[in-house]
Amino acid sequence: MAHRDDVRALPEPYLRLHEALARHLPGERLVTDPLRRLALGTDASFYRLTPRLVVEVRTVDEVRRVLAEAARLGTPVTFRAAGTSLSGQAVTDSVLVRVTGGWRAMRVLDGGARIALEPGVVGADANAVLAPLGRKLGPDPASIGACMVGGIAANNASGMCCGTAQNSYRTVASMRLVLADGTVLDTDDPASREAFRAARPEIVDGLRVLRAEIEADPALRRRIIEKFRIKNTTGYALNAFVDFEDPLDVLLHLLIGSEGTLGFIAEITYHTVPEHAHKASALALFAGVGDAARATMLLQGGPVAAVELMDRASLRSVEAKPGMPPELAGLPDGAAALLIETRAATPAELGPQVEALLARMAPVRALAPVRFTAVKAEYERLWDVRRGLFPAVGAARPIGTTVVIEDVAFPIRHLADATVELQGLLATHGYDGIIFGHALDGNLHFVFTPDFGAEGEVERYARFMDDVCTMVARRYDGSLKGEHGTGRNVAPFVELEWGAKATGLMRRVKRLLDPGGLLNPGVVLNDDPRAHLRALKALPHAHPILDRCIECGFCEPRCPSRDLTLTPRQRIVAQREIARLRVTGEDPAALERLEHDYVYLGEQTCAVDGLCATACPVGIDTGEHTKWLRAQAHADGGAAADLAAVRFAAVAAGARAGLRLASAAHAVLGTAALAGLTRGLHRLSAGRLPVWNEATPRAARAPRLDGTRRGGDRVVYFPSCVARTMGPARGDAEGVEVHAAMLSLLGKAGFDAVFPPGLEGLCCGMPFESKGWPAQADRKGRELEAALLEASEGGRHPVVFDTSPCVYRMRKAAGGRLAIHDPVEFIQRLVLPRVSLTRVPGPVAVHVPCSAVKLGLAPAFRAVAEACAEQVVIPREVGCCGFAGDRGFTHPELNASALAPLAAALPAGCAAGFSSSRTCEIGLSLHAGVPYRPLAWLVDRCASPRAGRDLEPPVPRMHAP
């Protein structure tokens, strides 16, 4: 996507850096085009800087080379993992070095007591590996589903439960790190430690001198100890000099929380902590934050895992949302709540722990009796109150405003007074904000939404920050940053909190480890008193679907194009800039270039799977915006789509003819020749002609109802247009059409299957919708609904599809007027109780299509597969397959990128995989190296009619879910 002109336009010395790196790195990993530099350079903070050059590294040697060339040319370097950081520590206007797309290796050690992780591992993925062992990472940031281990360690992130005892600083076991000059140290390897001492004596001696100075100053030493009794990520971890004697152990712990300013973390090994399976939670309501704070103090030292404080404003922001406790709406002004959780290894331990906590809290009067629940569905609803706070503010903010979430900590004895004073400061400066936080740690977050584009807003924010920092640091001797990292936002205030002497030691640490000052300059320490007011991010109006985005990045791990082009967050960033340029008219050439590049980077390689919405705090489905863009491109046409909708049976017949022709060509030319030929035609046609692959299906045979009419319970079966068109791959000797497997299985279960009338012309409309033809999609949906209503006698009989994406589409289109069942859901609920099963040996893989994930059916997929196979694997490394209807043929690179981890994730001996979307199965088969077939095929293979089935009661009338 980069143009030669983009490279030539680089200013010195970035041009020379690019030239030097291009001799060793693939060109696609040196990003110079304007759109991707803007999009990739965005993080979750309220700062916006655009890097001159983005470099994607995959190995330690590549990191060393980048550092060496950057040092030679004097170009600053900033490391980036997931970019979920909130204080501006992951943005730069120089060189951005990204570890996303790689660095995902994990090694479980000592039976789970330790785990070694590369910096690109998402925290939740590490916890998923540890969960079967009853262990987890100590740090538990709210962003753990998106943030990566490199960022967790570099920011010393904590969270709701880890406090100061289980954060990265306290649980790090060892680290492989790279210093600014390229020196590598593995602190777990004695040979590496000795080599480092010999090669870098000035660092070893320099750290020893700094430690000796602290030890010789009792007042300073006491201050350091006191500062870290509460959460503190302001400045560097000076407690390393107090807690450790060996300079290399000091260095290891200095890297924690250093935000990439002292070195690069290539691998980190953590001591893990127990993950207790049994929990009980309570929402305790109090008349004010004072009572809530006193109750928190009484809970300290008890069997409590988490205590979350929420002020009245925060509760008001969520009280009207579905599922919230009804008592929230009636709380008086000034009220506050504590969300309390206790955890235990066994259910028997929970009862005594709950009683102990209630006894501790008893001296503080609550507004209502405090009741704990150990029922998961109930305590999850309580935690939804806490989880909903930040999204509620983000979703409700006026368009154009920025979400600012600040993070401070106080000695807990000051929590009540500090909370009230903080509420007063927000009101004094005219901010309508909310306050919540990790009460056990005295750690408060406050959220508000300034409009940095409005006149005078920056100065108002400046006055507010001055007052907050003075209040926290001077009045209460608290932490200006408890867990979000210093970043740019409080870098000018580090000396206000720490004093001149301690801050001077931090500056000496920086000079010792980064004498050139090239690692993430301006972060952690900054001499500019207004640094926190520069490069503030504006969030201009782009589109109603996108405007609520707070650019947190939670969506990114779910996106199949994340390692190929852009993520949902990055698409939104690009759209905001395109919208801004359209309004201002300031740079027509830049606008034209962004619009041109977005076609491929943003629109064509978006799978429109909607999984981004399942992770988004405010529920944004970026795929819906992509469909809107495609519809805009078709705004002046539609005759071809109208014709295809009207003559859909002929279109399907033509598709089958094309598959027969491709299969014949395969027989004549062979796999390699046909694949090469179609790739060439694909390139010559500018991507219009599809690419054939060895998993491309044969034409499907027509579905037949023979053998299913046995006088049993009636079910309406709709074979999707894909199932009626695409049979098994030519090389799949065992595969059959999905409709053949479904009809066989329904017959074994004693169902009489009927098709809706006019089957060949029916379609749910998804192919039209995904290509940007919403009117034609709705027309086909209405036609199918009418046919299903007729066949089901007005909804009297259940309706089952064989393809999950069609179910998702029709459940939305039919609006609950029909009971439409996903095939796997139907099999689990109504087929398995009616058949006998013989499980197949060995492991099988299962892929849950995106639509089934959004319908909450992943547990059903596992349950059905486990009923049929001895071992079932659902690779966590794989989400959306990226085939996206026909994108796997027209943009095969999207499918390849999305499924790059699949083959390695399958266990030895896995000979087959199963899903419920024929197009997904094509891409999965291609990239897994084993055939993927319909899950209904596996069940049919294992099933036989159950004896005595005639004694079963008939299936009751089904109601729409």
Outline the structure in words.
It is a single chain. This protein is an alpha/beta fold and 961 residues long. Among the domains are: 4-99 and 536-624, Uridine Diphospho-n-acetylenolpyruvylglucosamine Reductase, domain 2 (2-Layer Sandwich), CATH 3.30.43; 278-449, Vanillyl-alcohol Oxidase, Chain A, domain 3; 648-829, no CATH class; 836-944, no CATH class. Helices cover 43% and strands 14% of the residues. It has 41 helices and 29 strands. The strands form 8 sheets. Strands 12-14-13-16-17-15 form a 6-stranded antiparallel β-sheet, with helices on both faces. The protein has a 5-stranded antiparallel β-sheet with strand order 5-6-10-8-9. A hairpin with a 4-residue loop joins strand 16 and strand 17. Helix 34 (823-831) packs across helix 36. The two termini are 46 Å apart. Residues 47-275 form the FAD-binding PCMH-type domain.
